[in-house]
Design a protein that fits this description.
Layout (H helix, E strand, L loop, with lengths): L3 H16 L3 E2 H8 L8 H13 L8 E2 L12 H8 L4 E4 L2 E4 L35
Parallel strand pairs: 1-2
Antiparallel strand pairs: 3-4
Helix pairs in contact: 1-2, 1-3
């Protein structure tokens, strides 16, 4: 059975697939409700679980925040990304997705507590509990 974190990330992967976008470790982890961990260790562990529990999902859409690839340019993720139309280039001796920022999924910021508070009442209205 998949962990709650893996289920949340799986749902986000589905959204990214429908939008044709990639995701950053930090953004996806936070959207799923947890911290990415030092060096992305937590999110990479969750991605490994997603790959095991949801093999049909496109795990390769989630990358480190700088768009770099964990392995060399010939690694599995790089090959899948290229097959799906993403160009892999070398930057600072590391393979990265070209135009990574442009291809990243963005989600709306959650509403602030003030914005989700009860709507203001008309000044002339007095709630029944406060009537004399």
């Amino acid at each position: 059975m998949a962990s709650a974190r893996a289920q949340e990330v799986a749902e986000l992967l589905w959204e990214m697939k429908r939008a044709g976008k990639l995701g950053k470790f930090t953004t996806v982890a936070r959207k799923a409700g947890f911290a990415p961990g030092a060096g992305g260790r937590t999110i990479t562990s969750v991605i490994a679980n997603v790959r095991k529990d949801f093999p049909h999902l496109q795990w390769w859409r989630i990358l480190p925040d700088d768009g770099s690839l964990e392995k060399d340019k010939d690694g599995e993720q790089a090959k899948i990304l290229e097959e799906n139309g993403y160009e892999i280039v070398t930057k600072d001796k590391k393979p990265v997705v070209k135009k990574f920022e442009e291809n990243c999924m963005t989600w709306p910021e959650p509403e602030s507590p003030e914005a989700s508070a009860a709507p203001e009442q008309h000044p002339a209205f007095t709630p029944p509990s406060k009537r004399k």
